[in-house]
Write a structure and sequence with these properties.
The complex is a heterodimer. Chain A contains 16 helices and no strands. Chain A is an all-alpha fold. The longest helix of chain B is centred in the middle third of the chain and has 21 residues. Classes of the chains: A mainly alpha, B alpha/beta.
């Protein structure tokens, strides 16, 4: 800033902004070039036009939310159309969104990779949630109050066992049978949890589930979380949950990405497209489908375990089948088979489900003379969104678009044959 | 061997030749019934190693059913299938494929969203990356396998003159190109024997010629053994020797193309089958 002090503010701002844009631009270009180098020989190495457009929409939405947040202090004199859109609200919504993302990623392994129709997403989620609640909750009929990690272990083991139990008889049959079996399984789990009071306290629910932040080793981060909580106005445990769930989402995403680009993922894609071909080429499709089914179910159970410790109270009412279909909508919206699509679809559904109370306020703000309950429209909105997406983008918002070849195998081969 | 009267015509069924040497594939008394109909009625045939054996017959003769029985897609009601001396009867299709018997399908089955190259990679067997754990425990061997496989895919695509299409979506290929791709993909598995179900169905004559050349080349240069179902009589007569004629679930006659062509029963079977 070597300009003299007499230049107007705008004149000084302009070069600064230009420099900023240039810096961001060159960073972005370098990032893209890095990507392009890595996928040098792949068709559509750079982001496709579609991906750019999706990225732009996501960016604009993010910017809008940030702007609203900035303009929306708790003590605003003139209320904006969305007074509830505050930082604490966003933090807690994102903490829930993380759980939805895990569910969509899990279903994407089953439906998106392998073409398995699983209608018991919420049951595996519930198994995870009740594993956490019953082992760790002080309100659990078993009064164990174990460390939350025991619940996580139980969630994983139970989901594996039950997924195998469902898969054994149905994965050999046509896809329809798995759909029917899982639909039934989902209701069975819900009704067992509702009625077996000795096991789950039935409809009373299980309370007193400890927050994760209150247990070692997570409690070590307490000072940091408290500071961040001060800064944002959210609760420390919510801030911690947000970090934790996003870390888990990232880890799951990276794991799934690697499996997707591997020969394993390729076999699953083949099975999804045409199981006979996979078998004719020597692939044991039954075994591969089983792996995908179990992997997806475990991810769903982990999401449930996290949720139980996040809301700290579980009732069987949370296991309504409609939740399963929200996850289906998310995966289909995002683009079946694409992990990035599952993330975007998951966010979209969360925004609709959680954002409807904001909509209420906005509608009240505009139509202050009538009382409308816009949140009752959420199902309608989900339906409309599905229709719009299916009409405009039948393969979802971000369907898989690249070849799935193990990273590094291509470019180096073309670079020099000998290793 | 047996005499069957169907309507007003009746003729002898010779049965397949089980006396030939070096039998890579041997089918004995194989049987499949759908209700009261025996689609494959105690068929015994053998395929000699290094030959191209043709399998012809009128519609409904049981050719495709026989293929499905051999390749494990149907469970036989009786009889045995032996591949290179070991019995494979009743094994699952993937187990049979891993033992070295690969089949292609009559109708082109395109794998949605996959490129030509990806199609090729699926054909490869015993890849380290086909299990989940090695992806983290031994990524180097996954990478090495993948490179080798890609290289082999490149060579085969060149051989089949599809290399310029390697990164195209397989769904964009023409019918004939797709048949070539199916062949090349099956070759990726390094099979001992290939069963081709109507390789030139719906392919224009020029490409059919091309396909015939590739198949002959696989046979001559790579010693590939092939069993081919084909409706295009000229195509198969020029390519295969011996020819096995199936009719009403039984082997009518087996022999050199000229002998089969001259056999009045074959003509009768075709005409009778239509009427």
């Amino acid at each position: 800033m070597s300009q003299s002090d007499s230049t107007p503010f705008g004149d000084r701002l302009k070069p600064a902004l230009e420099r900023l844009f240039a810096a961001v631009g060159s960073l972005w270009l370098r990032y893209e070039k890095g990507l392009a180098d890595r996928y040098e020989t792949l068709r559509g190495a750079q982001l496709t036009g579609e991906e750019r457009r999706v990225l732009a929409v996501v960016g604009i939405s993010l910017a809008a939310v940030v702007a609203l947040l900035a303009l929306n202090p708790v003590d605003a004199v003139v209320p904006l159309p969305v007074p509830s859109l505050t930082v604490p609200f966003v933090v807690s919504t994102l903490a829930i969104a993380g759980m939805y993302l895990l569910l969509t990623l899990g279903l994407n392994v089953q439906w998106g990779y392998a073409g398995l129709v699983n209608f018991s997403v919420i049951a595996f989620w519930g198994i995870g949630a009740y594993s956490g609640a019953l082992l760790a909750g002080s309100g659990s009929p078993h009064e164990l109050e174990l460390h939350p990690l025991y619940g996580l272990g139980l969630a994983v083991v139970l989901s594996v066992v039950l997924a195998v139990a469902i898969g054994l008889p149905t994965l050999r049959l046509r896809a329809d049978y798995l759909a029917i079996a899982t639909l039934g399984f989902s209701e069975i789990i819900r009704i067992i949890i509702l009625n077996e009071e000795w096991l789950t306290d039935g409809g009373l629910g299980v309370g007193g589930i400890p927050t994760l932040l209150s247990t070692w080793p997570f409690s070590l981060t307490e000072p940091v979380m408290a500071a961040l909580a001060n800064l944002t106005g959210a609760q420390p445990r919510t801030v911690f949950d947000l970090f934790l769930v996003m870390a888990v989402v990232l880890a799951v995403f990276l794991v799934l990405r690697r499996t997707q680009l591997s020969p394993w993922g390729r076999v699953l894609r083949t099975i999804r497209a045409d199981e006979d071909i996979a078998q004719a080429l020597g692939k044991n499709s039954y075994w591969y489908k089983m792996q995908a089914f179990v992997l997806g179910s475990v991810i769903m159970a982990i999401a449930g375990w996290y949720y139980a410790h996040h809301v700290r109270f579980m009732t069987p009412g949370e296991l309504e089948p409609i939740e399963t279909f929200y996850i289906w909508v998310a995966v289909i919206l995002g683009g079946s088979g694409s992990n990035r699509g599952a993330i975007i679809g998951g966010f979209t559904v969360v925004i609709i489900l959680q954002g409807t109370r904001l909509l209420n306020e906005t509608v009240d703000w505009i139509l202050f003379f009538v009382t409308v309950d816009a949140s009752a429209l959420r199902l309608l909105l989900v339906g409309l969104l599905v229709i719009v997406v299916v009409r405009l983008r039948p393969e979802g918002i971000l369907p898989p678009q690249r070849e799935h070849i193990w990273p590094g195998a291509l470019s180096e081969r073309d670079g020099g044959e000998d290793k | 061997m047996s005499t069957v009267g169907s309507g007003d015509e009746s003729y002898d069924y010779d049965g397949g030749d089980l006396s030939k040497p070096n039998q890579l594939l041997r089918v004995e008394e194989l049987r499949k019934e759908f209700g009261a109909l025996a689609a494959v009625d105690d068929v015994s045939v053998a395929v000699e190693e290094g030959t191209i054996t043709g399998l012809i017959g009128p519609n409904g003769a049981g050719k495709s059913t026989l293929f499905k029985l051999i390749s494990g897609f149907y469970e036989p009601d009786g009889g045995t299938v032996t591949l290179d001396g070991s019995e494979i009867t009743g094994l699952s299709p993937d187990a049979i494929a891993r033992k070295g018997l690969l089949r292609t399908f009559q109708t082109p089955r395109k794998l949605e969203g996959m490129t030509v190259r990806e199609n090729m990679l699926i054909g490869a067997q015993h890849q380290a990356g086909e299990s989940v754990l090695p992806l983290w425990l031994s990524p180097d061997s996954v990478l090495a396998d993948e490179r080798r496989t890609l290289e082999r895919a490149g060579e085969l695509l060149e051989l089949f003159e599809l290399d310029h299409l390697a990164t195209e979506p397989a769904a964009d290929l023409s019918g004939g190109q797709f048949k070539l791709l199916e062949l090349a993909r099956a070759m990726m598995a390094e099979p001992d024997i290939m069963l081709l179900d109507e390789p030139v169905a719906g392919v224009n004559p020029a490409l059919a010629e091309d396909l015939a050349e590739r198949i002959a080349m696989l046979n001559e240069e790579r010693g590939m053994t092939l069993l081919i179902i084909e409706h295009d009589i000229d195509f198969i007569m020029n390519l295969a020797d011996p020819i096995i004629v199936l009719d009403q679930g039984k082997v009518l006659v087996e022999g050199e193309p000229d002998r089969v062509r001259a056999d009045p029963r074959v003509m009768e079977a075709y005409l009778g089958g239509e009427g």
